[in-house]
Write a structure and sequence with these properties.
By secondary structure, the chain is α/β, with parallel strands linked by helices. It has two domains: about 210 residues, Rossmann fold; about 60 residues, no CATH class. The protein contains eleven helices and 13 strands. The two termini are about 40 Å apart.
């Protein structure tokens, strides 16, 4: 069987800061897919994105980016990056941003596509960035990242601060972006409902460790939220219980596989877990 083509991969990657360590971890981003990166504040999501894009270097392990390394300038030019709160000079207009980026990317820059994105996002081309709202600035960043048709798009909270209609618009663009199976997206977001809509894979960082990277549909089918007494919970094998929170009514537990739990406890309340449920209970467990 042929190996699945990859847009990017981290192999045994670790990064150490004062009081915090990311990894070591392994993560693969298949070509033509959207990987959603989740985790609580301080889990290491932005650190991981900066390692992947070559902004920072790992202390251990290797990073593979579009079949090369982030040290290769030609490869870095083939990725689009949007970091939260990273904006262009406020005195510039969107039209001036486009002109500047055309000079940087050369023939790879699609001026017509950039103009179409500005129109789609209702971004006035001649209005200075300082006059734009936070949401409009984020749209400008996204348009700038997309207009050179990158092989990999890396987004850090790209839908944060946007109204539901604008978020839905961006999610549709990301889905269109990967349809040819040659483009990929790594999207870090606290808005887990967005990831439930578009992600193929969910990668969960917790205290600097990658707890899992799983197919989203399998993940949401496999995990359940079990509400029961401690006595019923004790009837389950420990390996089925990922996390537990004691409540006044008994126990609320993150369990898997959900089907096995329901067979072991007939009549039990075990609803399908959302991504938010998985994060919430895991973080309470510590």
């Amino acid at each position: 069987m042929m190996a699945e083509p990859l847009a990017a991969a981290l192999h045994g990657v670790a990064k150490h800061y004062h009081g915090f360590t990311l990894g070591p971890l392994n993560l693969e981003i298949p070509a033509g897919s959207i990987v959603g990166l989740i985790g609580e504040n301080g889990a290491g999501k932005t650190t991981l994105l900066k390692l992947l894009t070559g902004v920072n270097r790992p202390d251990a392990g290797t990073v593979e980016l579009l079949s090369a390394t982030p040290d290769d300038a030609a490869v870095r030019a083939k990725i689009g990056v949007v970091f939260e709160d990273a904006y262009f000079y406020e005195s510039l207009t969107p039209a001036q941003v486009g002109a500047s980026l055309r000079g940087i990317f050369g023939p790879a820059w699609d001026a017509g596509y950039f103009a179409a994105l500005l129109e789609q996002f209702h971004l006035p081309p001649k209005k200075s960035i300082k006059e734009l709202s936070r949401g409009m600035r984020m749209k400008l960043n996204l348009a700038s990242a997309l207009a050179h048709r990158p092989g990999l798009l890396v987004l850090d909270e790209a839908t944060s601060g946007l109204d539901p209609a604008a978020r839905s618009e961006i999610l549709d663009i990301l889905l269109d972006f990967i349809q040819d199976e040659r483009h990929s997206v790594l999207l870090s977001s606290h808005i887990t409902t967005d990831l439930e809509q578009i992600a193929d894979t969910i990668a969960y960082l917790h205290h600097g460790q990658l707890l899992f990277a799983k197919n989203k549909d399998d993940l949401m089918e496999e995990y359940g939220i079990l509400r029961c007494s401690q006595q019923d919970l004790d009837r389950l094998p420990p390996e089925w219980i990922a996390a537990t929170c004691r409540t006044a009514a008994g126990c609320e537990s993150l369990v898997h596989p959900r089907g096995s739990v329901l067979r072991a406890l007939p009549g039990a309340v075990c609803d399908a877990a959302s991504i938010d449920d998985i994060m919430r209970l895991t973080s309470k467990e510590g």
